[in-house]
Design a protein that fits this description.
223 residues; six-stranded mixed β-sheet; 2 domains; 8 helices; 14% strand; elongated; 32% helix; alpha/beta; Rossmann fold
């Protein structure tokens, strides 16, 4: 399913029906994941609760514009999905429980801050709100300064590439694997540690997973 934002971007999401009198649940994935990461949970809740699992912008089947990745915009995207499902205060629908994993938990907290009447509860998995001052003993500005790259790295792309190239071993510099080989050889003079398994016996196999996704437009969207 897809909802189109007022700015034109499209947010894709999966949805499962549930009883009309049950509390709806919104499932938000973390960074570099998609709505499909919630599938094991959805299998257990589908039919018992109405569910929706969106792809954050820039993830999965959602559009990936060049802007709009600030926390407020991401939370508003999710609230638009909530309204498209007929949930939340904006459409006089029932409030939702929002479950977020990792970065999705942070987006969930922001959504609750922006529109508390639409959120009845939060489930925060390995993420969410954290008091920076309490955990780090630093102010937000001090913490950002501590983790930021040195100014010269950000001066220009040429400066960044020059620093990156300086960290690449030049000709004659032993590589990491060569240094490992030297260390193993030094343990037993005249020998080197090698795997006893013939290279032809080492097989790497990854099963391919193909999924088909059907999308249609709902509510304020075109069908």
């Amino acid at each position: 399913m897809v909802v189109r934002l007022a700015s034109g971007e499209r947010i894709a999401y999966l949805a499962w029906p549930g009883p009309s009198d049950a509390r709806p649940v919104l499932l938000l994935h973390g960074l570099s994941r998609t709505s499909w990461s919630w599938l094991p949970v959805a299998r257990r809740l589908a039919g018992r609760y109405p569910l929706a699992a969106p792809d954050l912008r820039g993830h999965g089947a959602s559009d990936a514009p060049r802007e709009g990745y600030d926390l407020e915009s991401l939370a508003l995207d999710m609230l638009t999905v909530v309204a498209a499902q007929g949930w939340g205060a904006a459409v006089q629908g029932p409030p939702v429980v929002v479950a977020g994993h990792g970065f999705g938990a942070i987006v969930a907290v922001e959504a609750a801050r922006l529109e508390p009447a639409s959120i009845s509860g939060l489930v925060l998995v390995d993420g969410g709100w954290e008091d920076v001052g309490e955990t780090s003993r630093l102010s937000p500005s001090e913490l950002l300064a501590a983790i930021a790259d040195p100014p010269e790295v950000l001066a220009s792309m040429d400066a960044y590439l020059a620093i990156a190239e300086s960290s690449i071993p030049g000709p004659g510099t032993p590589t990491r694997s060569a240094r490992r080989e030297q260390r193993s050889s030094s343990d037993t003079p005249g020998t080197s540690r090698r795997s006893s398994v013939p290279r032809s016996c080492v097989v790497s196999s990854r099963p391919s997973m193909r999924t088909s996704r059907s999308s249609r437009w709902l509510g304020s969207r075109s069908r």
